[in-house]
Amino acid sequence: MSEQMFFEAGTLVSVLTTQPLDRALDYRAPEGGCFRGAYVEVPLGPRKVIGVVWGAGKGDYDYSKVRAIIRVLDAVPMREEMFSFLEKSAAYTLTPLSAMLRLTTRAPGLGDPPSMQKIYRRGEGEPDRVTAARTKVLETLAEYGDLAFTLRELGEMAAVTSSVIKGLVKQGVVREEESPRYMPFVRLDPELPSKALTEDQAAAAAVLAVGVTSGDYGTTLLRGVTGSGKTEVYLEAVAAALRAGRQALVLLPEIALTAEFYTRVEARFGAKPAEWHSGATMTERRRIWRMVGEGNAQLVIGARSALFLPFQNLGLIVVDEEHDTSYKQEEGVLYNARDMAVLRASICGAHVVLASATPSLESWANAQAGKYTKLELTSRFGPAVMPTMGTIDMRSEGLPSDRWVSPSLKKEVDARLERGEQAMLFINRRGYAPVTLCRACGHQIGCDDCDARMVEHRFLKRLICHQCGESKPMPTACPSCEAEDKMAPIGPGVERLGEEAHALWPDARIATLSSDMYGSARALKEEIAGIAQGSADIIIGTQLVAKGHNFPKLTLVGVIDADLGLTGSDLRAAERTFQLMRQVAGRAGRAEAPGTALLQTYQPDHPVIRSILAGDEEGFWKAEAKEREQAGMPPYGRLAGIILSGPDVAAVFDAGNQLARNDKALRDVGAQVYGPAPAPIARVRGRHRVRLLVKASKNVALQRALSIWISQIKLKGDLRLAVDIDPQSF
Ligand code: ADP
Ligand code: ZN
């Protein structure tokens, strides 16, 4: 369909709204008509809702009563590219199109009146009387052609008082208008000098530049240890896109969107990029949305939802830390931003760069298979070397049961403190203790609504369920046997480790970093920036410190419980542990001082631990790939999860069994169904969840078979069904 498809006032158009309906609705085009792609406000029952003009209305019924579109919104219309992206991603994730559309409209607050300001430009008339001040105003306006200014700007440039300008407004010589506050972005300059790249880096940057300027879709996996200069290299790809007059998007996990990172980009290009993150205000989002749509924001650096911005001419998408599990949105539309980035780029002829020190097995396999170009940076930039890695065998440390820092690890930390360096203790568990147990009767406090234990958070003085967020005060008596003062914490969390550290090193400055200890992402990022400047001697942290922060004085990382991810039924556990441990170890010794990473483990001979120590990534991936291939698991086979949920556990299982029995549509394509079984999270917010896993070979039209299969089931009452294509855990 052409971008110019226009509908005269009164004609029937089909509007897709953001409401959870299963189809588009017909309306009459408003006065003045509208184009396909226009964002509009339409009546729906007693309400007004937002939608997009999708095409011509059907008109195969009595449509004399069809209501009219209320108004066309002041927003950049949706482009054909975005239609295609939404349609394809909806089909891929088996999500209703209206839910996909919501991803494009929620962020900019479409439909809300934007914040306004008065602006001034040249009007028609001539002044009744010429004065020096008036002449200055007219000269200033003439110099800038059709541009408009705020009262203050114009007053300053013409060096006149505001009353002079207001006087001219009265005579119609200067025109006063209401205008939304959309400040354009200052243009970025790709010609500013970059850092002098090493030979390796320059070679990689050159390959990327060729890909970006080709104007064709392509994906490159940029692999390199932390500190090898991946960021420097992909910023050159951004420069290539800007030179070619195309826009660029850099995606990072939310926590890595720090002021430090934005400053680094500003230093490279001489001006700020558009910053799209959870802390951005609605006004800022609206501004970015519009500027991106009009092509006046050349570079967006943001979190995964930036993928749904209305780029006019997108030439490059970088997905940094591409293996990061936070790219998978686990609520609402279940999409993986890494995969959607590839889809979006293939539609608009853009290049994708997937950057990581420890790529996902999926991307590694795609590169092996030749679908992605492979680029590697093998050494760290400058004098820094990879950290020395070792294990501490906990079986021989003789640690009392409620202590977690081994004597060997303590000695290593002491040495760093003496030298004025930083040490990090890493544990991937939030809160104070994972279990709270009654020492009289053995009762463990669980969540009332979920199948999960409540986790004690001393900092917040509450017990919190990590599934649903439910919290309650810490009881003094056991809820089961009512014994007083018998509730005891079992096992370590990051807060408890912090407590132990304070006892071990009373004079050290200790910073405990856990997402729930900070009011906002911004506060947390500020704390991290302070630590990078040296505000702490010992850093205690969870997964979030494993991501690309740069702590120049950090020379030791102690992993408290390296075994944590090795057990459990998740087939991805090995991959996760490998990535996490490598990332954490990569924190140590970025600058001049060499680093050490020590893993406390009860299983020093475990194959995953051994390949981490040996730094044998290729070996690890190959072994892991072989196992997955033999089992027909992703990325060598395809998986989809069907999650049924409802308040009544029997009804949920009945529905699951009914689906499992009627699996002809799946058998027809050679797919198998497993389950129903309790979902990885078996109960959330009072709803029971069961999961069916569907396994198919790689080249099957799985989505089509799935939609035929699930359409057989009528969801009664409060039963709900969600499809999770490529589930993260299996
Ligand atoms: P990665 O993204 O692989 O972790 P970075 O691009 O962040 O690596 O580089 C690590 C550090 O080394 C950064 O401080 C960066 O500015 C610096 N660096 C990397 N390459 C160069 C170079 N060629 N010249 C100067 N500094 C560099
Ligand atoms: Zn809960």
UniProtKB/TrEMBL annotation:
The keyword Oxidoreductase does not apply. It catalyses: ATP + H2O = ADP + phosphate + H(+); Couples ATP hydrolysis with the unwinding of duplex DNA by translocating in the 3'-5' direction. Its cofactor is Zn(2+). It holds the Pfam family PriA_C. One of its GO terms (biological process) is DNA recombination. Signal peptide: none annotated. Keywords: ATP-binding, DNA replication, DNA-binding, Helicase, Hydrolase, Isomerase, Metal-binding, Nucleotide-binding, Primosome, Zinc. It comes from the Bacteria. Binds 2 zinc ions per subunit. Residues 211-377 form the Helicase ATP-binding domain. Zn(2+) 1 binds at C438, C441, C478, C481. InterPro entries: DEAD/DEAH_box_helicase_dom, Helicase_ATP-bd, P-loop_NTPase, PriA, PriA_3primeBD, PriA_3primeBD_sf, PriA_C, PriA_CRR. PROSITE patterns: HELICASE_ATP_BIND_1. Its EC number is 5.6.2.4. One of its GO terms (molecular function) is ATP hydrolysis activity. Belongs to the helicase family. PriA subfamily. PANTHER family: PRIMOSOMAL PROTEIN N. NCBIfam families: priA, PRK05580.2-2. Component of the replication restart primosome. Initiates the restart of stalled replication forks, which reloads the replicative helicase on sites other than the origin of replication. Recognizes and binds to abandoned replication forks and remodels them to uncover a helicase loading site. Promotes assembly of the primosome at these replication forks. This is Replication restart protein PriA. It comes from Sulfitobacter guttiformis.
